[in-house]
Structures
1.
Amino acid sequence: MHRPLIVSLLLTLLFTAGFPACTFAQTVENSVYGPLPVFEFHSGFWVNLHHTLYEEAKYRTPQGPKGENSQAVQASKSSPDDKAASRPTLKTSGSKAPLTPAEQRAWDDALNYYAANYTDKDLLFTLELILIKNQLGDFDGCDELSGRKNKTCDAGLPGNLTHVLEEAAPVYRAHQWPEHDLANRRWVMRVAPLVREQGVGLSQRLADIYQTKWPKDKIRVDVCAYANRAGAYTTLDPLRVTISSIDPRNQDVEALEVLFHEASHGIADNVQQAIIRECHQREKPIPRDLWHALIFYTTGEVIRPVIAATNPDGSR
């Protein structure tokens, strides 16, 4: 198989220049626009709860008041650059009812558990967290995870985690989930017309460039209030995308670029292999993350005409 043309061209440029050497389970795609091509969008309760606990546990500070999310505290101590890179915040309307003492204890217990067991691990690279995320997605049609009421809803998670999630679930459902789910659904409503209009053509174009086949089955996209620091990430086997509906980098037509960039992780192995072969043949060190840069560049170029048509003034 010939190496992808874009790889050959870019490698030649790099080496010539001496370049030195990363309800609950809900499928929302059918809500307005009918079945969509390429992607299958989900706003799942358990996956959203999992990412929310991870996010809040990661950003809270031991010095703050009990149960306080540390974002405001951290912002007051951070530099302007740090603030620019801070996590997205859901804009809420009106005042929220405060947590009862019992709810606060349940939520604090969940945050403490996540802080002790997961926040030092990476959502993208830690197999344990990947398996948890996938398992929660597979059971996002259940209102429990232990199978006590319904044996088919036994998710097979570690007992402590199952207990923590089930105890935190009523708190999340009452105080955050309605707005998170609404944000997720609004995001899908905005991106769905673009996926319907452009999805098949873009997927075919990218598959041709990478000289492979686009996945036959639709790619599951878990739409969450919070994803990871990058705003979206992709795990393989099975190929699944997790994307933040409130991250400013994932809005409007740029959402289409993020979706296809993430999905390309599942078909771009040829790129990485071609880079490795070329570097070995030239006895050059393999530039770190060059394959990822190529995915960024390729997706951007393929999406560029769509962006130009959507934004006639050339803005992004």
Note: DSSP finds eleven helices and four strands in the chain.
2.
Amino acid sequence: MDFNWEKAPKQAAGSLKNREIEESFEDPFSVRLLPDSTYFSLNARYFNLGQTTEREGVFAVYRTNGKQVEVVCARPFSAEERFFYERQQEKLLNQKGRI
């Protein structure tokens, strides 16, 4: 996955490094969501929830042209996002165990 870092993503003052954001997209259990909001869908923005190699959760809003990812905003998981991510991870692991 190729990232475009020309525009720095909005985030809490230096809370995440670009490398950590990239790692969250490479997480095999990352959850990518299509927005249900008209604003986000009209502006072609998507959501990614993933973990870094240090198991830090990252929530990112991004756009893509199919070749490059441009992160618009990134921040650490909230408690609700961590719960959602972990629930999705459990579902995926349970499905693989049944195959």
Note: The chain has a mean pLDDT of 87.
3.
Amino acid sequence: MLSIKKLVPLKIKQYLLLLRQYIHDLNMYRNHSSIIKKNTYEKNESEITLRYHAIEKGFLHNPIRYRFAKKKVSDLIKLLKYIDFGKYTHKIQIQSALLNLCTYYEYHISENVDISDYYIKSDYDLFRLLLVSEEKPINYHTIDSFFKHRNSDFYNFSISRKSVRNFTGERIEVETIREVIELANHAPSVCNRQPVNVHLVDNKPLIDKILDIQGGLKGYSDQLSQIILVTSDRNYYYTLGERNQFYIDGGIYLMNLLYALHFYGIGTCPAHWGLPFQADEKVRKLVNLKDSEQIICLIAIGVPQEDFPTTLSLRRPSEENLFIHN
């Protein structure tokens, strides 16, 4: 049995080793994210994606607001002008940006709305010349067409799941949610520790307070009557190498949960939770979460409207992200 004299230095050593690991994390994020420098194609692509996605979400509104996302459009045009089109035009995120910008321009021209103060015709002509895709940034569905592959093969089932932002306000029965969670709980986790908790919130004033903290579902929350908070509990991890494992296990569970909700015919929209720790603390005051629980994601859930749109959100082909090492 270790004496107190031996135990205290051991704890200090573990603390210092943990601190060193987090300093390494800090340096890696500082050096390779775009938080400090935007000096690689990948960082610029991330900035481009952020802006075109904001534009395509604007097409979901009915009616579409004239001159919406003006600053996002202006910024996106500037960002694209720094891209080496000869080298990167074929990239799916660049094509998605071009598609949304061209659709944006064409929509306003068709409505006789002047946008020349921030989007001129010569820019549109260039983007149209570079655009290969002839798809539209928005797809339209009925409830039946959206969920028709619920019992299909996995290929068609998985690609049929899209983020839904147009809900009726009707609540999903708790018993149905319980069945969804029973299915989602088959997600793998490190050493089968199963650290994930699911918090269903169906109090509308409380939901609105949480959404104000999250900030990413503005304009779509009026008919949103339920949300899910997916959390991962740090209590289940014990080695230096597992310091970020709760995010990995939480992410695996999250995708399984999204599939389970889709299987049960429930519309979903996972909302970004890459927020400062203060956001978690604010939510912790509103919802009974343990200090050890890290919020992984907020999911808007509900019954979709009878007819509703979803963003196209083109996906990368395997040529862009599969690397084979022989």
Note: The radius of gyration is 23 Å.
